[in-house]
Amino acid sequence: MKYCKKCLMPDTRPGLKFDDDGVCYACINFEKQKHTDWEERWKQLEKLCDKYRGCNGDGYDCAIAVSGGKDSHFQTYVMKEKLGMNPVLLSVGNIEWTETGWKNINNLSDSFGCDIIMFHPNVNVARKMFKKAFEKLGSPTWYMDYLMYAYPVRMSMQLGVKLLVYGEDINYTYGGTYDKETPSAMLQPLNDVAKPVWDIWFEDNEISKKDLEAIKQPSIEDCKKFGLDPIYLSYFVPWNSVHNYEVSKKYGFRHLEHEYKREGSLDNYDQIDNIPYLLNPYLKYPKYGHSVATDNASRWIRYGLKTREEMIPLIEETDGKLDQGIVDKFCEFTRMSHREFWVIMDKWYNKELFEQDRDGVWHPKFKVGTGLVK
Ligand SMILES: [Zn+2]
Fold first, then answer.
1. How many Å lie between the centroid of ligand 1 and the Cα of residue 196?
2. 290 CA distance to ligand 1 centroid (A)?
3. Which one, of 223, 212, 239, lies nearest residue 302 by Cα?
4. Domains (ranges, CATH) in the chain?
5. How far is CA 274 from the centre of its chain?
6. pLDDT tens, 209-234?
7. What tens digit of pLDDT does each residue of 151-172 get?
8. Which residues line ion ligand 1, judged by CB < 5 Å?
């Protein structure tokens, strides 16, 4: 296990590459942003918007895939306020919202004056799939992740809207099979943020193919035939999550702190619209030895807001903590006992990174920022 010399990302993160000097590509690509000609990129975006503005008469010019979070506010602000587009917002709803998350998605519509078309997931299928995906993949929200890829594409095509706007290109930032910097988000579903497994769900006949039809991604050929133009906004405007948060606040976005103080996280404004889905990012900890605190800390180091030394003790204190509310809500939804939950959790610990004591408690064999010490 090796850590980036600049930030605190470990090489255990799937897809993350390092250069010969031991610097990760998230840092390298962030540095590149500083030399990007953003004025030129902005002109490209303006040109693209000119092409689509008014293409549906008084109907929608473009669609934006949103969750209601800070980045959704930023995307809508850029497309509607700055570029004068008439967007429709496409969203996959949560099964259970935090009060803050629900206020934020309503605010997104109210503050910018946009229609939202929301897909409410099949609760019964989601319940089965959350449990199965936790057991089989260690990725409990696989069903939702797939849906979030599939739904905006499918809905855009049904609405006859060709320009579909996404936020950040995660694969360019952190690496993936298709990690070239590109304005087009066409190949996004092929990157395995949600693992492309399919047949394992039907093995015990609890789930049928019809149950999963809604989460199926239309083929790239069908998208091309339709003329879909999916883009990453992060190609055209500098992407900085702290900056996006500051902008979103000016349009009424609220953080979670007034409702809920969560463990295992350094911020209170990212992924706050539901509690149990946070189990997914937490699972990176037993699998790869880092979780959301490392992600956050590394971003803040890149942005020049914090130093590596400052963040090491904070990550050590935070990353391994799984919020009790996440476990409670996840168990309640999947109708699983806590005992059953922890048996499955044990399965996902990487024995190269953790060791279990005689009572079954896991301890890291690594030191944050250094690597394996045992
Ligand atoms: Zn780095």
1. 27
2. 13
3. 239
4. 38-235 (3.40.50.620), 264-372 (no CATH)
5. 13
6. 999 999 998 999 999 999 999 999 99
7. 999 999 999 999 999 999 888 8
8. 4, 6-7, 9, 24, 27
